[in-house]
Inverse folding.
């Protein structure tokens, strides 16, 4: 898949870019219903993304400037984003701040802006 549909395309570009990683802001906007996109559709797209990441690596890397090298890495990355954005739908085993830090280390990005 060379192109991703909306809203996942805009979310990855606007919140998950390697230079301005805003996953905490995204999670807050979803939690407080301030987002400008269909949350149910994003959730469904992330679930599909996690279930079958095959062929998404190039599209994800192009949107985010990440350098994910395999479908498995894309899958793990998507799963971690899902856990942080939709925590009530996923049993979280570590505090939110630690999850953000783990994801940042995985992607080798700087701290989130608040």
């Amino acid at each position: 898949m060379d192109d991703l549909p909306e809203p996942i395309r805009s979310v990855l570009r606007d919140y998950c870019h390697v230079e301005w990683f805003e996953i905490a802001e995204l999670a807050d906007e979803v939690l407080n219903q301030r987002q400008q996109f269909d949350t149910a559709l994003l959730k469904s797209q992330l679930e599909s993304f996690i279930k079958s990441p095959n062929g998404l690596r190039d599209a994800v890397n192009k949107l985010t400037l990440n350098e994910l090298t395999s479908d498995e890495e894309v899958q793990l990355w998507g799963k971690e984003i899902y856990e942080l954005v939709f925590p009530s739908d996923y049993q979280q085993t570590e505090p939110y701040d630690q999850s953000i830090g783990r994801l940042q280390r995985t992607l080798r990005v700087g701290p989130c802006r608040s």
